[in-house]
Write a structure and sequence with these properties.
Number of domains: 2
Shape: globular
Order of helices and strands: EEHEEHHEHH
Strand order of the largest sheet: 2-3-4-1-5
Largest sheet: 5 strands, antiparallel
Helix content: 25-40%
Radius of gyration: 20 Å
Number of strands: 5
Strand content: 5-15%
Distance between the termini: 41 Å
Length: about 210
């Protein structure tokens, strides 16, 4: 990949829950489970976690938490719930040990970060799947386990990503590796769709 940074800093934790956890800070009428819950204690702590991960030490102190069953109960058995945690930062390669030996320990750190805001979350978990970057790479085929197909940093975003067209006629790209980059929802697909339409119109004009 040359200088393209593509080793994922993300830990994914998928959980089956016996019930939804409690967020004591949520006020009356607030339903945190029906939103993306951001787990963070501030920019300084997040920056420190990033720097630690760069040294090979995993501190998944920041995260996004989703409760899919708050919208669609059918994705879990009756009376049960689902939760997924998208946690940062973790290294692809650990400074000590490996993911096979430390996967659950690092998963515990991510759950502990959530527990700062939902203290009973561990009591709700009846099943857990922990996926480090190498696990995502092996299961899904994403190089470096990176769901954004490259770091979301200024030198790897926007015009520095691939365009939708390829040298292969009729083959277009619309994933996170394309302009403008990862986590820019739907724009990549729209760019590819517009390129397809433009090429069809151009081809029609040549007939």
């Amino acid at each position: 990949m040359g200088e393209w940074a593509i080793e994922s800093p993300v830990l994914k934790v998928n959980c089956g829950l016996s019930r939804l956890p409690t967020f004591p800070a949520a006020g009356p009428g607030v339903e945190p489970h029906r939103a993306m819950v951001t787990i963070s204690t501030g920019m300084a702590a997040t920056q420190a976690a990033y720097e630690s991960a760069r040294r090979g030490v995993p501190p998944p102190a920041w995260g996004e938490v989703y409760f899919q069953t708050a919208y669609d109960p059918s994705v879990a058995p009756a009376g049960m719930h689902a939760m997924s945690v998208f946690a940062q930062y973790v290294p692809y390669a650990l400074a000590e040990g490996d993911w096979a030996g430390r996967r659950e320990e690092i998963g515990d750190l991510a759950v502990a970060a959530v527990a700062r805001f939902a203290p009973d979350v561990a009591d709700c978990i009846v099943h857990r799947e922990v996926l480090g970057p190498p696990d995502v790479e092996a299961r899904i085929g994403l190089t470096g386990g990176h769901i954004f197909q490259g770091e979301c940093l200024p030198d790897q975003m926007w015009e520095r990503r691939f365009g939708p067209r390829t040298p292969v006629t009729g083959l277009y790209l619309c994933g996170a590796a394309t302009h403008p980059g990862g986590s820019v929802i739907a724009v990549n697909g729209r760019n590819a769709g517009m390129a397809v339409l433009a090429d069809l119109e151009r081809a029609g004009g040549r007939r």
